[in-house]
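Practice set, problem 2.
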Amino acid sequence: MNVKKILIPTDFSPFSERLIDYVKDFFGAGLPKIEILHVLMKEPPILTIRSLDLTEEKVKQSILSEAEEQMDEFIKKVSDRIGCESCKNIRQGVEYQEIISFAEENEIDLIVIATHGRTGLLHTLIGSVTEKVVRYSRVPVLVVNSEFLLKK
C-alpha cells in the first residue's frame, strides 16, 4: 500500500499526541503528509446557551475560537515531530461523518485513529466514533488502542 496522505482525527487528548508519535515511529523516515482534523459538535449544548444567556451564534463563535486555539497549541506540540505547520483542519458536524467526508474529499490514503476503549452503557449511550469510521469509511482505517498508546 502506497500511503501518501494520512488523516489523524484529534480531540486534543493525550492519546492524540501519543498517536502522532506512534505514526511517526510506524512510518519512520518514509512519513507521509499528515492532516490533522478536529470536529466540533453540529449544535452547541442548549444548556450552555441558556445558562450563559447568550445567543446561539455567540456560543458557536466562542466554541470555534477555543477549538482554533487548541488546534494551534496541538500543532505547536507536534509539528517538530511530523513537519506539519499547515495541516490543521476544523469542521463542524457529526464526527464520524465529517472524518469520512474529509478523507474522501482530500484523497486521504489512510485514517489513523485512537480508540478510547469505552464499553458497556457508556459505549451504548454515546456510540463510538472510531467504530462508525471503521464501519462506513471507504478509506482504510488503522485503529490504535488507547491502552497501547499509554504504554508507549
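Problem 2, part (b): a different protein.
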Amino acid sequence: MACASSSAGWARLIHLTLLRGETNMPAFLYEATDRDGKHHAGRVQAENLPAARYRLELQGCSEIRFHTDPRTEAQSHAEGVVLAEGVTPTQEMAARLTRGGSLADLRSIYAGNWIVWLPTTIWALWSLYAGPPFDVVKRLSFILAVVGLLFPLWAALPSRLYARMLDAQAWARWDELIMLCRRARQLRKFFRLGSIQIDAEFRHAAAVAAQGDLRGALAAVRHHGTTLPKHIYLGRLASIYGAAQDWQGMADLQAEAVELSGRETLEIIDHATTLAWRLGHTEEAAALLEEVRDTEKTIMAEAYFNYASGIVSISRGHHAAAVEQLSLAADALGASGNNALLEYMADYTLAHLVLALAGQGQIALARSLLSGVLPRLKAFRDLALTRRCADAVLGKRQGQ
C-alpha cells in the first residue's frame, strides 16, 4: 500500500519550497472550525496526533481533520526535508488537492514564480515600446526576460518528472519507470533533489524487482539502511518485495517494521492489509485492525483502515459491512487529490467493492464497477483478483 500525497501540485511544492533542515516535533497539517465558526487550515506541532488534537481543542477548534500522518513526517525528517518558511497551510492544502491537466499545472507554475519573470518581462516590454536604438541596457532587458520566462519551466522539471514516475508505477509500466528514475539521477547535476532522489531510488528498485531481479533491487537500496530510521527503511523494502509479488517476504518485513515503529497505526494497517488480502490470514489481520480501531488517524489513514477492514469483512462473508467500509475508503481516496498512486489505491478498493456488492446480490452495480477497474488489474497482471471479481459478477462461488 502506498501512503503518499504526491499530486503534480504537491510534487511541485516539494521541489520549489522544501529545504534541508530539522524540527523538534512533527508539524501536522489540519483543517478545523474555530470558536467563531470559521473554517481554516493550519499546522500544529505536537509529538503525535492525539497531542495535536488536544492542543487544537484547547484553542477552541472543532471538526478537526488531519492531513499529515506521523510516518510521513518521520520519513521527511529522516530525509532532511522540511517546509520552507512562507508556505501557508492554505497553499499546502491547495497543492495537495490540486486537480487539472498540463495547462492548469503550467498556469500554477508561472503564478507561483511571478517574481522571477514578471518584472523582467515588463522591463523588456517597456524597452520594446520605447523602440530603437536598442542599446546594451535594452538588450539586457530582453535577455533577462527570456531567462525569466524559461526559469519556471526549468524549475518545474523535477516535479514533472516525479509526477510521471508516480503515474508509471501506478500503471505497472516498469520499463518507463526505470527510464524516468535514471533521468532523476541525471538531474542531480543541476538540481538539489533531496527526498525526490531517495524516492526515485526505491521506485527504481521496485521496478527492477517487478521484472524479476529482487536480489539486485535490494542491493541497490541497501545503503539507505544506515541513513533512514529502521522501520521506515523496512517499510520501503516491503514495497519492493510487494512489487516482486513475494507476499510472505513483504509481510515479514512489515511485521518487523510494526515492532520497530512502536506499533504505529499505519505500519499496523499495512501489515494487516497484506495478511488479509495476500496471505488470507483473516483473523490475524482482524486482531491487528482491532488494535488501532480507536486510535487517532488522519483522513488517509482512516481510508486505508476501512480498506483493510473491508477485505477482512469479505473474507468473513460480512458483505454489507464490507460495502460500507470500502465505500468510505473509496470516497476518501477520490477526494484526496490528483495523485496517481491514490488512483491506483482507489481502483483496488473498488475491485474489492465488486466482491462485496456481488456478495450482496447487487450484480449489475458490481459489473459496472468491474469494467472501470479492469484496466488497472490487467496492467498489474493481477489474475487472482481478476478471476475472483469475474466469478463474483457471474454468480460463481468466490474463492479466497
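Answer key, part (b): The chain has 20 helices and five strands. Strands lie at 18-20, 27-33, 39-45, 62-66, 81-83.
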